[in-house]
Write a structure and sequence with these properties.
Number of domains: 2
GO molecular function: transferase activity
Protein name: Aminoglycoside phosphotransferase family protein
Shape: globular
Keywords: Transferase
CATH class of the largest domain: Alpha Beta
Helix content: 40-55%
Radius of gyration: 21 Å
Pfam families: APH (PF01636)
Organism: Dorea formicigenerans
Strand content: 5-15%
Order of helices and strands: HEEEHHEEEHHHHEEEEHHHHHH
Largest sheet: 5 strands, antiparallel
Strand order of the largest sheet: 1-2-3-5-4
CATH topology of the largest domain: Aminoglycoside 3'-phosphotransferase, Chain: A, domain 2
CATH superfamily of the largest domain: Aminoglycoside phosphotransferase (APH), C-terminal lobe
Length: 370
């Protein structure tokens, strides 16, 4: 850690509404975007209190003030809903610790933005599914997120990353990347390029349905991976959805779909041996059951019918993004070997192809729980 970072962190710590004496300050988690620290305070006659302190990445999130307005609005709303249901608002949603001036963030003298949350104790997050019930618990939690926020006015939220899941716009951007071919790589990936072009209907599907008013705009999480769920250490039950940086207006089917893309694949995201990659119908069934149960009747019939398409669109979009980045010289996604993004792209396209083979089965699974 550089002296500048130490200075920034010390300044930030001094400007939040903390109580007690700081006794420990350590880096925390394995996130790739924000810088995260776990602070431990000793509070007189009250014991130990832990909090999370984060420096927000303003290169990824261009307007941290709007981002924190989203988070404060959503978490305050969730807190009220959880209290009404008799739940524990200190564990079932993130709780923002305000800065000394009352704002939900602090801007330091270097121009960087910081925020702080109460640490959720006796709970863990997992990077990989260790047992099927964890995937079901994640589905319940993300479904319940939709349930609790069903009446929240989604159009009042800011877009923290513009066009994040605008698959149609990403398709047009892809075509431009092919045309410009700035790294002269297009000739070596003709098969993959053709796969994208052959799926233009998938890229445009949800934009067209939204334009016709067939699917509603909702508050969505937009990063529905297992590691964004806190699971209680004693009960094994999911208790809280975390990492709300990408909470913004979106489609519930996309939240469902991204979770399937990531969690129901039998192979790693960058698996070179594509024979190992398929969409597990057992895991698809498990997540579908949990998600629909968690939503508790708040999804429309049309949204539920479109859940398989959500899985297909999000997987296709991700593969297309990996291929676009490969064509442009690997500038967005971090790579650890040559053609890493190409390997990632191919796994996603293999999943799309596998979903197409199992399309009828996926729809039958959804019908079971509608």
């Amino acid at each position: 850690m550089t002296q500048v970072v130490r200075t920034q962190k010390a300044e930030a710590i001094a400007h939040f509404q903390y109580e007690g004496r700081l006794i420990q300050d350590v880096p925390f988690g394995n996130g790739h975007i924000n810088d995260t620290y776990l602070l431990t305070f000793e509070v007189k006659r009250m014991g130990i209190l832990k909090v999370i302190l984060q420096k927000m990445n303003k290169n990824v999130f261009k307007n941290p003030v709007e981002l924190m307005e989203n988070i404060l609005g959503v978490t305050s709303y969730l807190r009220e809903k959880i209290i009404k249901k008799g739940g524990d608002p200190d564990r079932e949603t993130l709780n923002v610790i305000p800065a000394l001036d009352g704002k939900p963030y602090y801007q330091d003298s270097f121009g960087d933005y910081w925020r702080s949350y109460i640490f959720i104790t006796d709970a863990s997050s997992y990077d990989q599914v260790e047992n099927p019930d964890q995937f079901y618990q994640a589905a319940m939690a993300f479904g319940n997120f939709q349930n609790l926020l069903a009446d929240y006015p989604a159009d009042t939220l800011f877009e923290t990353i513009e066009g994040f899941h605008d698959t149609k716009a990403r398709f047009e951007f892809f075509k431009r990347a092919v045309e410009t071919d700035i790294k002269s790589r297009a000739a070596g990936v003709k098969k993959e390029i053709q796969f994208v072009l052959d799926h233009e209907d998938v890229a445009c599907c949800f934009s067209n349905l939204q334009a016709k008013g067939e699917i509603p705009l909702r508050v969505t999480h937009n990063d529905t991976k297992l590691n964004n769920i806190m699971i209680d250490n004693k009960t094994g039950k999911a208790i809280c959805v975390i990492d709300l940086d990408t909470v913004m207006p979106g489609l519930a089917v996309n939240d469902f779909g991204d979770a399937i893309r990531f969690g129901a694949s039998t192979g790693a995201e960058d698996e070179k041996d594509l024979s190992k990659v398929e969409c597990s119908m057992e895991l698809f069934d498990l997540f579908t059951k949990g998600f629909i149960e968690g939503c508790n009747g708040k999804l429309t019939k049309r949204e539920m019918e479109l859940l398989p398409m959500g899985a297909k669109v999000m997987t296709f979009e991700c593969g297309m993004r990996f291929l676009t980045d490969y064509l442009q010289g690997d500038t967005y996604f971090k790579i650890h070997r040559e053609e890493h993004n190409l390997d990632r792209c191919r796994t996603q396209f293999k999943l799309v192809s596998d979903m197409e083979k199992k399309w009828g089965q996926m729809h039958e699974i959804v019908k079971k729980y509608m």
